[in-house]
Amino acid sequence: MSRIKDLQKNLFGGTASNARQSGMIFTLVAIVLLFQIWTGGLTLTSGNLIAVVSQYSYILILAIGMLMVIVAGHIDLSVGSVAAFTGIVVAKAMETYSLPWPLGIALGLIVGASIGAWQGFWVAYVGVPAFIVTLAGMMLFRGGNQYIGNADTVPVPRDFREIGAGFLPDVGPDTGYNNPTLLLGLVACAGMVWREWKARQTRREMQADVAPVWITGIRLAVMLGAIVFATLRFAGGRIGTSLPISGIILILLVLAYSYYTRNTIGGRHIYAVGGNARAAELSGVKLRRVNFVVMMNMSVLAALAGMIFVARSAASGPQDGLSWELDAIAAVFIGGAAVSGGLGTVSGSIVGGLVMALLNNGLQLEGVGSDMVQIIKGLVLLFAVAFDVYNKRQGHFSIIGSLMRPFRREEPPGPAGPASDPDKTLVAG
Amino acid sequence: MTEASTLLEMRSITKSFPGVKALADVNLVVREGEIHAICGENGAGKSTLMKVLSGVHPHGSYTGGIVYRGEQMRFHGIRASEQAGIVIIHQELALVPGMSIAENIFLGNEPRRRGGIDWKASRRRASELMDQVGLREDPDTLIKDIGVGKQQLVEIAKAFAKDVKLLILDEPTAALNEDDSQHLLDLLRGFRERGITSIIISHKLNEIEAIADSITILRDGRTIETLDVKADGVNEDRIVRGMVGRELSSRFPDHTPDIGEVFFEVRDWTVQHPSSAERLVCKGSTFHVRRGEIVGFAGLMGAGRTELAMSLFGRSYGTYLSGRIFKDGEEIQLKSVADAIRHGLAYVSEDRKSIGLNLLDAIKTSMVAAKLSKITRRGVIDPVREYRIAEEYRTSLRIKTPSVDEGVVKLSGGNQQKVVLAKWMFTDPDLLILDEPTRGIDVGAKYEIYGIIQRLVSQGKGVIVISSELPELIGLCDRIYTAFEGTITGEVTRRDADPEVLMKQMTAMKKSPTS
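^ inputs. structure came back:
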């Protein structure tokens, strides 16, 4: 195996499940570079990056929950309406009863949890398909929003707006940058180094092949470079700006949910249920509880997204959250989740969401009308999934996967070996 | 054999998949009007060969030639081969459950009349075809309302509708009970009389011995030999020798039972069918298992063995009505699968692909799936322990895979079954219920699975084996219960077990006047 091939394999992960995701990372980088050139450098300015984060963080938050819903084999069409409903309830409560903002947020999360419990009950315990339950919820809570708000907008107090429009404070010595953001960047770099080291440690404990140090080095350099670049951009914007608070909430959620879905029993049960519900049940997985929790969690995240949006736009209105569910679902599928459930990752969905966000942003910067933006986004979704379907049918997992194919460890074609009858597996698949 | 009587000749077929050579220089000669069996272990290349023949693997994706009725054939798809009269019936039946028999027979091939479907002709011709295959049903009956044996016949009728000359059956009797299998084999004999040639792929060697005129044996993607059944005096042992390349002195590993006291007991277990309240699937079943004992359950389709097992396993089937379970002298309540696992029960289902495994999982993920708590600390999974445990099982059960990170879907049937066994061994069960543990598995892997079962009982566990193959039960079990339509009808010890005795008890109720 030559060094180049080694590098490719280790940088992008040779495993099939990562292939689509790494393909999407390429796409993301390509989109960024394309627009960076096209817009004459506008895309990667501090101001624009900050705007992108605050404009799309709530969709990405929805994508996290939607990923889990889709992995479990369901769908949630109600998230936009749930977000709007929560927004109006919180805004109204703060206006009418002058509720302090932390209580407002708590109230919003409780509203989300209650709605989630309602929908989860129908899905998990009655057995109504989630498509129907949440289609009903979509109408129900949209109507609820307009009923409570009299189809009018309700403003929210200044403090509350921080979660949507706020920035980290400027503290510490004058470095010309926003210091807390710099600090966050530093923490991120340290975390990345620690993670790489830990991963090598784990592989060594498994007595598996550990990538050569120079490969880890290159990979770390690329990632640290990206973090440092992003940190300087976010910290170096207009005075008073930084990485938005909503972006920080998003990052925390991504880390927490990535960890949960990858490393815990609860997370693994979601994949088990989506992969084969009956097999999961016969392995002792509490099917109903998993379905209930997944649906409920989605609504809580939708409530959070709704509040962030309301905070950003300073008021809750009847048109909030329209077609958010579609953006979130698109992000999840572009990010590599399977329509039939059981496959997909949080990080993939975030990458998928970013592809959509940067596409949107770049086209808007170029003054492309929203009609064209819609058309392009639709085509991107279609082609991303079609690519995957096509490549799966070819027996590869994706373009990247097929490029990587010759570099994967070959299976010894032993007698009656696992791979000596590929037909069987195709039938099974 | 003369050239004139040769219907099909496949010459030095070589077919490669990325990284694997599935077929290497395979030859197959099928004479007109014979029943030709193809034998080989899983992964020997049988299915691939048939896919080459039927055009699933189109011309150009393999090397070698196909001569059929004296002509070179270049099939580019299954439609082309069907037009030539070659019809393949797969193990997984391709019928639409919600449509009628007649609609299924003519699916994609509907008799037309003025732009619409000619329902009258369709029904009439369906009746004719059904007569030919001995299927006595109304052509308007829905597929989901007939048993799997009759569904198989519908598939064959469908092949007849396409004017079949060469019928290929892939594991036709795998899912059938003895009666239905017998009927199907008789049918094939009838086709032979009428000059229809059949190729049959089967793991059931006794059937092959009974029905085939010649046998081609494949091993590791190569033709080993072609036997003429009459001339060569072929018997089962002879076929097995060809398939595994060695003499199997015994089909069961040596094992000296070391049987302890009764530790698991079920009394008056009664369970109602999940959808119809009048039907009972278990009627007051009472049985027990001793430590170190392999207990068999014999029965025909509808005997309620799987239903019994699943209802015991955390009430996973039907509605519990009454009955008690005792373990080590104490009564236990198993209201959920989690309860059952906690009390040391394990159930390996008969259908590993649809309910036994998550086919998206990696091997290691599957193995620990039923008791994740063993490899977690405060809810967090330890990947190193997961990997090590999977590696241990890979070695001890001799699972053939380059890595436990591979997907289970890539494994052959026998290796998949070993993964399922590992999954349940990992839960440290006291009692394992194995439902058809060797279904669809080749001879070599069967032998290994028997060895694993024997190792488990020698550790003092109890094992229940549900199987439709009587020789398997007789060879493996220390004691065998027989069941018929939800009732346990008898109990036979190893010493007294012979197929005739068992078969009588398995069908006993049929002869009684009350039913």
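The longest strand of chain B covers residues 6-17. Residues 509-515 of chain B have pLDDT under 50 and may be disordered.
thumbs up if we can close this ticket
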